[in-house]
Structure prediction request, 422 residues.
Amino acid sequence: MGAGANELIVRLTKRGICAFSGLIVPWLTFAAPTWLSLSSIGPCWAVLWLLPWALEEGQFSAVIAGLCLGLVLDGISLDGTSQIPILMALGFWWGHFGKRGGQIERSLNLGLLAWIGTAAFGLSLWIQIVIMQPQGDLTYAWGLKTLLSQSIITSLLAPMVCSWLLLFWRKSNLS
Amino acid sequence: MGVPSWGELFRLRYWLRVWPWIFLVGVFSLVRFSKGAGFSDAYAFLSRPFWPGSAQGEWVQKGIQIEHLARINLLEQDNKRLREMLSLQRSSGREFLSAAVISRTVQGWWHQLVLAKGERHGIDRGNPVMGPGGLIGLIESVTPTTSRVRLLTSPGSRVGVWAPRTKRHGILIGIGTNRPQLQFLDKDSKAIPGDLVSTSPASTLLPPNVPIGIIQSVDTEALPAPEAVVQLTAAPEAIDWVQVQMN
Prediction:
């Protein structure tokens, strides 16, 4: 087993709970709690997990996390669209911000980043749907409603969820 | 592991260091290409104590009675027509399997249900899924113990339908909203709001004469053929148990 593998094992052992928290994303996607929704549309759980992960872990890890998360979420969603490209792109972008440390981790900043990220996530899916299954005006109205509702509910939750995850992961790393 | 420079990516030594990551991505790729088999099955296993019970029984029965009345009417008309034609003999020996809904997404980017029965129970891709009120969707993918339903409202859903009153065929297309769009195949659809939409009596892919919805509005100016908005008779957001028609 190479040095890379040992490093990975140590890293994963140290951050067992952090890695485990990533598994909650597909589970929450399955469960889709109706009480936590805006206009019947729930938050983008992938964004709520990937944002603090990228800020904490940096670009490379965030891109890989985006890829892994995208693969799982594509697996549990209907065919026709893919979440992988946008999650990888968001991981790359947020990982870059992660270098700036505390400035980015204020509640308002987290909310804003989550809002932009969810809007980009929705836009990516919407474009794929429009290209692959072109429809009429009603599709555009539905897409806009879904995009706005999801980005608003995600950005409202982000300051709470992302701050908590960041604190939790930092505590885990320190101990 | 620090952040690598992009030039490093091309060095052989770097690839030796990152093989665990590649392995990890490989594992998740397997999850992707198995349509989330491990995740869906684990979710089904762990959420078993929370599966819907029989509390909805009476409500479901009422819905089934209404559906049966509508189906009887359609079947009578169909039988009459078939006797006149002296053709199209179809078997009625189909099997239905009841399955609990363990995950539901009826709004958002995907409109899908996850059922607590899968390949092991004989469910196959393309099987029609019915709830109290009529058809709600088709099986999109299956894992050993779960199956995923693409709802009629989901973008990408296309089902051939029939307007019994006017005897016109059409395609019901999911557009993401609660009410799918019906594209008629004939220019002269003769459809009016209130008309019933059902599966075609001659369908080989779907069970014949199953109610789907009621036409809510018709756009006769649409090109190349009229379009209608259909209100579905079955409400996926309120259904805890469905019936899957087996092959």
Summary: Residues 15-247 of chain B form one domain. Residues 57-85 of chain B form the longest helix (29 residues). Chain B is about 25% helix and 30% strand. The first strand of chain B starts at residue 96 and ends at 105.
